[in-house]
Amino acid sequence: MYRAITFLAIKNKILDDENLIISLAEKSEIKLEFVEGETKVFINDEDLTGNIRTAEVNRNVSDVSKIKEVRDIMVDRQREMGSEGNGVVMEGRDITTVVFPNADVKIFLTALLDERASRRAKEFTENGTEVKLDDIKNNLIERDRIDSSREVSPLTQAPDAIVVDTTKYTIDEQVNIILKAVKKTAEEKGIKINYK
Fold first, then answer.
1. Domain residues of the chain, as ranges?
2. Which of 37, 38, 48, 161 could form a disulfide with 108 if both were Cys (CB 3.0 to 4.6 A apart)?
3. Which residues does 186 contact at the CB level (< 8 Å), separation at least 6?
4. What is the pLDDT of residues 39-92, one digit of tens each?
5. Phi, psi (degrees; rounded to nearest 5) at 7
6. Which CATH number fits domain 1-88: 3.30.365.10, 3.40.50.300, 3.90.226.10, 3.20.20.60?
7. CB under 8 Å to 59, separation ≥6 — which residues?
8. At 20, phi and psi to the nearest 5?
9. Phi-psi region for residue 100, left (φ > 0), alpha (ψ -120 to 50) or beta?
10. CA distance from start to end of the chain
11. How many CB atoms lie within 10 A of CB 170?
């Protein structure tokens, strides 16, 4: 969601004007839809999924997301999404500490910097963009610094979160760890879950 607002701020050339970014966030209708195994991001019914993972968005998303009023707007919208239906699976840097501090299952995904950079480089390559690995690493370091030290909703690990270091696990192994945690919590609440 923050990436989508950042993309629009770049597109509208308003990155240097917090008030205009806040206004943009207020006016933008954001929808997330899970389509064929991928979460699609729509703003005002326009699919921005392919636009929000660019190097330019990566460079600017932390600066946009540290604006308190933008965070307030996004947190309200995320909580609205969570109140619809029978629950929600959501990811983000403050989901389990600020947005849903009482979530039933909290997972803190992490990985070594080299692994994160390698994954991001692969993502760029698959989208037809070449970015130097050192540039990606520097961006990740800077984003982590900004997000961890921002005044509002900093990136922190919830004390009751299950830490999964994805550096050493395959995707299937990561999924199994998470599903095991979900199943355990569900059973403690008297809910039976079957999965393969």
1. 1-88, 91-196
2. 161
3. 192, 193
4. 899 999 999 998 998 889 999 999 999 999 999 999 999 999 888 867 788 888
5. -60, -45
6. 3.40.50.300
7. 139
8. -70, -35
9. beta
10. 31
11. 9
